[in-house]
From TrEMBL:
Organism of origin: Smittium megazygosporum
Compositionally skewed regions (Basic residues) per UniProt: 97-106
Superkingdom, natural source: Eukaryota
Protein name: Uncharacterized protein
Comp. bias regions, Basic and acidic residues: 80-96
Region of interest (Disordered), residue spans: 80-106
Length: 106
């Protein structure tokens, strides 16, 4: 039979893990929001530059610049997607751990 001290510790540990999970979810949402805002700002800039270039004849340098911007945006999108996958994976690990601890102590 478990003593009250052990039950109290288990309850404390469960609450601590749930708080960590909540904090991780909040941080993930903040990061995602920040990424979305940055991407929107980048896209607005790209569209503004693109509209300006398309309204005039483009020089080879301008075409090269556009290709460079497109490549950087594609790379940024891939980094963002990888970051979101990493966050999701980390959160799944925390949830699984919290469930294991909860099952072990109940």
């Amino acid at each position: 039979m478990e003593d009250n001290g052990e039950k109290a510790w288990q309850t404390f540990e469960k609450i601590r893990l749930e708080k960590k999970l909540d904090d991780a979810d909040k941080r993930r949402e903040e990061i995602q929001s920040h990424i979305v805002e940055k991407n929107k700002a980048h896209m607005d800039h790209v569209f503004a530059v693109s509209d300006e270039y398309h309204s005039n004849k483009k020089s080879p340098e301008e075409l090269e610049f556009e290709m460079e911007v497109d490549a950087k945006l594609a790379a940024a999108d891939e980094r963002r997607e990888q970051h979101l996958r990493d966050i999701s994976s980390h959160n799944h690990e925390k949830v699984a751990h919290a469930k294991r601890v909860s099952r072990e102590h109940h």
